[in-house]
């Protein structure tokens, strides 16, 4: 809208007393100038609930720990201080639980919140082979994306019917051990089946002498890989990641390549080339804290142009064929390298064989392994 026409329409409207039209024209003018695309008002309730589910999830990821600490301190410095003190004592006694199989609650994994969250994108879980409930499996998941949206929906909740897809199996999602040091927040992660990313934790979960039918979902690239997450790009960190191979060999647990197609497309992080000042800051911050400082740029509640809500872009998490691993309590570097090379080949094969089903411009999509 030409600004001269806009001013003229405002003056005419004011003279006629039509203030509401002035406001409407003003918003249209501002939106056009700023390039803001507003969401329609007549959105079905189901989609509103889905947006609310996704908003709650990203708020949990971004602010959950800080809010938990604030709540804990508020209780500690109140007349209910004894409750916070009792919780702290119990937490100290419970500190090893994330390394000993966790403490999951199915009713938390069954919350309708997670179903709305998964329907928002939507997220789908696809299997390409059956799993044997008499074994334990190590799911090596790629890519990390900004916040592992697909892996969370598929393996940390029951919203995608994991139990029906893989009968007789239960799943644990692995995350940084530091998250389990945050009061209150740790209990939610544990309830969702989360466990620590320590070797002790992985060896415990995959030990056939203690239990069977376990699927342990590990985001191999971790926080470092999140820095390479950009829409349409599939760059994963695998070449220097061999610890998970060694764990699989020590336990004899089959390795399963898992790939989430569409994961990089739900956020639009700032461009951060490897030699840029922003990237150097991010890398240094990650080295000190284990967390990659990324602003998850997506959309807002009432407009689609900017905000921290993820974009409505489909994610399909494909579980590949298990790779049988011979148990070896003390594998040599050469043996680890051989298994690593075979797993890398299988991951590339999974990406190439499945990308045409779940990516629009699949011919121009390649998997970059660093």
From TrEMBL:
Keywords: Acyltransferase, Endoplasmic reticulum, Lipid biosynthesis, Lipid metabolism, Membrane, Transferase, Transmembrane, Transmembrane helix
Main localization, broad class: endoplasmic reticulum
Entry's Gene Ontology molecular function annotations: diacylglycerol O-acyltransferase activity
Biological-process GO terms, alphabetical: triglyceride biosynthetic process
The keyword Secreted is assigned to this record: no
Cellular component GO terms held in the UniProt record: endoplasmic reticulum membrane
Protein origin, superkingdom: Eukaryota
Enzyme class per UniProt: transferase
Keyword Transmembrane helix: yes
Protein location: Endoplasmic reticulum membrane
TM regions (residue ranges): 54-77
Membrane topology: Multi-pass membrane protein
E.C. numbers: 2.3.1.-
Assigned protein family: Belongs to the diacylglycerol acyltransferase family.
Protein name: Acyltransferase
Record organism: Papilio xuthus (Asian swallowtail butterfly)
Lineage: Eukaryota, Metazoa, Ecdysozoa, Arthropoda, Hexapoda
């Amino acid at each position: 809208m030409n600004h001269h026409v806009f001013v003229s329409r405002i003056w005419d409207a004011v003279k006629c007393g039509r203030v509401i039209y002035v406001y409407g024209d003003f918003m249209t003018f501002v939106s056009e100038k700023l390039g803001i695309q507003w969401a329609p008002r007549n959105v079905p309730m189901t989609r509103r609930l889905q947006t609310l589910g996704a908003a709650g999830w990203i708020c949990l990821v971004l602010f959950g720990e800080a809010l938990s600490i604030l709540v804990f301190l508020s209780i500690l410095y109140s007349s209910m201080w004894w409750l916070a003190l009792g919780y702290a004592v119990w937490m100290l006694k419970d500190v090893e639980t994330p390394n000993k199989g966790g403490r999951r609650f199915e009713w938390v994994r069954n919350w309708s919140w997670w179903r709305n969250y998964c329907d928002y994108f939507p997220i789908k879980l696809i299997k390409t082979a059956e799993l044997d409930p008499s074994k334990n499996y190590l799911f090596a998941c790629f890519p990390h994306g900004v916040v592992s949206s697909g892996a969370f929906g598929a393996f940390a909740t029951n919203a995608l019917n994991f139990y029906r897809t893989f009968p007789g199996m239960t799943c644990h999602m692995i995350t940084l051990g530091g998250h389990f040091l945050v009061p209150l927040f740790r209990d939610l992660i544990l309830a969702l089946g989360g466990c620590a990313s320590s070797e002790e934790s992985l060896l415990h979960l995959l030990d056939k002498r203690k239990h069977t039918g376990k699927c342990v979902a590990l985001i191999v690239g971790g926080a470092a890989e999140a820095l390479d997450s950009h829409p349409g790009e599939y760059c994963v960190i695998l070449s220097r990641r061999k610890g998970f191979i060694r764990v699989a060999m020590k336990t004899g647990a089959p390795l399963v390549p898992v790939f989430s197609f569409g994961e990089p497309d739900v956020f639009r992080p700032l461009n951060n080339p490897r030699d840029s000042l922003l990237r150097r800051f991010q890398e240094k911050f990650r080295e000190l804290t284990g967390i990659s400082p990324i602003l998850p740029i997506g959309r807002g509640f009432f407009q689609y142009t900017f905000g921290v809500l993820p974009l409505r872009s489909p994610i399909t998490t494909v579980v590949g064929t298990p790779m049988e691993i011979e148990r070896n309590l003390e594998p040599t570097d050469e043996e680890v390298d051989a298994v690593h090379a075979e797993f890398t080949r299988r991951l590339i094969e999974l990406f190439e064989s499945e990308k045409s089903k779940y990516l629009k411009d699949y011919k121009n999509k390649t998997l970059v392994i660093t």
